[in-house]
Design a protein that fits this description.
Order of helices and strands: HHHEEH
Number of strands: 2
Number of domains: 2
Shape: elongated
Largest sheet: 2 strands, antiparallel
Strand order of the largest sheet: 1-2
Helix content: 55-70%
Number of helices: 4
Distance between the termini: 46 Å
């Protein structure tokens, strides 16, 4: 995911996300602002209301940022693991699949 080998792909993802966010965010902000003005809000109230909506989106995305597993031990260990500030907070063991594999290897006669 991260590292020298994947820096080109990550750079492309980041630039694409920024450009889409800038275009979609600007169009959405202007549409909501103009709708509020048409419905009788003052320009200041419409602007403040739009800023509050942007703040909600920023807070939700801030929560998602903490869900990214950047620790190599968390990403590559079997199962799902998540560390926060160097301490493992979530650790879900993988399902035991050895019984299923043994059953598939035996022929049904």
């Amino acid at each position: 995911m991260f590292g020298a080998f994947n820096i080109g792909a990550m750079h492309g993802f980041i630039l694409t996300a920024w450009s889409l966010g800038g275009v979609a965010g600007g169009l959405t902000f202007n549409a909501k602002y103009n709708d509020a003005i048409k419905n009788g809000s003052t320009p200041v109230d419409a602007y403040v209301d739009s800023i509050y909506k942007i703040l909600i989106v920023v807070c939700v995305t801030g929560i998602f940022i903490f869900m990214v597993r950047t620790n190599p031990r968390d990403r590559f260990d079997k199962g799902y693991h998540y560390s926060l500030f160097g301490k493992r907070v979530i650790s879900i063991k993988p399902k035991d699949t050895t019984a299923n594999k043994e059953g598939l290897l035996q022929s049904e006669v």
